[in-house]
Amino acid sequence: RVGQEIARISGGDFFEIVPVEKYTGADLNYMNSRSRSSVEMNDPSVRPAIANRVSDMESYDTVIIGFPIWWGVAPRIIETFLESYDFSGKAIIPFCTSGGSGVGRSDTELHKNVSSDVKWGKGVQINRPNESTIKNWLEKAL
Predict the structure, then answer these.
(1) Which of 5, 7, 68, 92 has its CA 20 to 30 A from that of 128?
(2) Is 91 exposed, middle or buried (0-12, 13-18, 19+ CB in 10 A)?
(3) Interatomic CA distance for residues 87 and 104, integer angstroms
(4) Is 33 exposed, middle or buried (0-12, 13-18, 19+ CB in 10 A)?
(5) Residue range 2-59, pLDDT digits in tens
(6) What Å distances lie between residue 110 and 99, 105, 133, 141, CA to CA?
(7) Tell me, what DSSP letter sits at residue 71?
């Protein structure tokens, strides 16, 4: 997994954002307008529940957050995560993965989910990571 690899290379901790209700293959069928992911992404107010929490978020100065691109932005559960903590004074560095599109609007859309007292790193797309690619990105991002 890309996030685990970044945590290993950066010497950071890895935290997986797990939904209370796991997504099935049918839920992720973006070709079906009634699929769970389609319904969530068509309603900006949806916030899927997260099954776990970072117990000591206040101890982190920098949070690197990764997600797949859904409809040109991060999935709604990423908004749930960002709205669940106080990131004031922290740096947030986003990265995304995508099989067919780029960062899209995700780099700027997530800014609305946290206080203005956050330093944002530029979002980047990482699809086929290798240690060299990740190190180069982290050197520029951190």
Answers:
(1) 92
(2) middle
(3) 23
(4) exposed
(5) 888 888 888 899 999 999 999 999 999 989 999 999 999 999 999 999 999 999 999 9
(6) 20, 9, 24, 17
(7) T
